[in-house]
Design brief:
It is a single chain. Helices cover 57% and strands 12% of the residues. With 115 residues, the protein is α+β, with helices and mostly antiparallel strands. A 3-stranded antiparallel β-sheet has the order 1-3-2.
Length: 115
Amino acid sequence: MEKSAAIAALSALAQESRLDAFRLLVQAGPEGMPAGQIGGRLGLPSATLSFHLNQLRQAGLVSFRREGRSLIYQAEFPAMTALVSYLTENCCQGDPAACGLSAAACNDAKEGTTA
């Protein structure tokens, strides 16, 4: 992940409603969730929700597909994994225990994989 992409993702997640929406989509899994259901669960009006989901989409953290008249949003798991890897790749500096990580987790972060 490039530094600019990490900044965009972190900026998008730095807002409470966007973080809540992203967490909800991560919990929903690859099948995603309709926008109306997200708004209902988070208590957000549709215009506000649309703004927040668009910010997450522009940061590459979510995508959507149309099913009939519904928009189904889903978390972009590769982007999430890349962000976590970006944040942990320099954490270890040869001492994974200093970051509370196993050596395997540190190597996975450096390789861009998950443990």
